[in-house]
Amino acid sequence: MAPPNRPAAAATNRIRIWHVAVFVFLASLLTLLLPDIALDTGFADAVVRLTDTGTWPLMAPFTVVVVLVLALRPEHDTRRRVLEAVVLTLTLPIALAGNALLNENVVKPAFGVSRPNIVTLANDGVLGPDIPDAETFYAVGDKQARRDVLEERLTAETTPYLSPTVRAHWIHETGYSFPSGHATASVTFAILMAAAALRWLGGWRRIVGLYAIPIWAIGVVWSRPLLGVHTPADVIAGTLAGFVWGVVSFAIVRRIVEK
């Protein structure tokens, strides 16, 4: 049997990961066409639950599952599988949590874009006469101070069009808008997993990494404008950032594991 053509296989994998990236990016562009949804329904509550899976605390179980999938698969020897699992265990928190910290504390404040729901609340007078616009709201203080303001003023009487679940989500999300951290984190995870699936996995494991996880990431991306807490521009930019983070993260993982 002829030895496998490793350079050709690597080139094919690069083409395929570009296919995944283009698919996810084109899906993010569809947020421009998403309709408004009623935010006082069970469907809206389900969208909140979906969007919450794009945060690091709830993505941690995903990481555990991925590590187990790698460590328990039959390919390669035990040492190789354990090495992959350990490197991913260390890399994923750095890639996801580090990205979140950078985005929230550096990138978003640098752009200073107000969330669309905050703009709407201020324009509708929900935030009170002392907060006539979004700029005044963001000048209130840090995130917790802004949450306290929303906790006081977003009630069932002032926002009857929000379910309790959506209202709680709006109260929690008081950071700046651009780019979307949820989109960045979910796409980072999806691209990293798709690359790992192409490089190392086969069978159903490859299907999960190459298709199921990217589709989940698209769901998280779509959830942000559906809930009114981000614009399409926010999630499109977050998707692009996630692709970069995902590719770089996997390049580091692969170099450590294979070299």
- Low confidence ranges: 1-6
Q: Helical element count?
A: 11
CATH architecture of the largest domain: Up-down Bundle
- As for the CATH topology of the largest domain, it is Vanadium-containing Chloroperoxidase, domain 1
Rounded mean pLDDT score: 87
Structural class: mainly alpha
Overall number of structural domains: 2
CATH class of the largest domain: Mainly Alpha
Instruction: Kindly state the percentage of residues in helix.
Output: over 70%
Proportion of strand residues: under 5%
CATH superfamily of the largest domain: Phosphatidic acid phosphatase type 2/haloperoxidase
Reading the helices and strands in chain order gives HHHHHHHHHHH
Number of strands: 0
Ordered list of secondary-structure elements with their pairings:
Layout: H1 6-29, H2 42-52, H3 56-72, H4 78-111, H5 116-123, H6 134-138, H7 143-153, H8 164-172, H9 181-200, H10 203-226, H11 232-258
Helix pairs in contact: 1-9, 1-10, 1-11, 2-10, 3-4, 4-9, 4-11, 7-8, 9-10, 9-11, 10-11
Which terms would index this structure?
11 helices, 259 residues, 2 domains, Vanadium-containing Chloroperoxidase, domain 1, mainly alpha, disordered N terminus
Précis, in short:
With 259 residues, the protein is mainly α.
Report on this model:
By secondary structure, the chain is mainly α. It has helices at 6-29, 42-52, 56-72, 78-111, 116-123, 134-138, 143-153, 164-172, 181-200, 203-226, 232-258. Helix 4 packs antiparallel against helix 11 (232-258), helix 7 packs antiparallel against helix 8 (164-172) and helix 9 runs parallel beside helix 11. The two termini are 25 Å apart. Mean pLDDT is 87; it is low at 1-6.
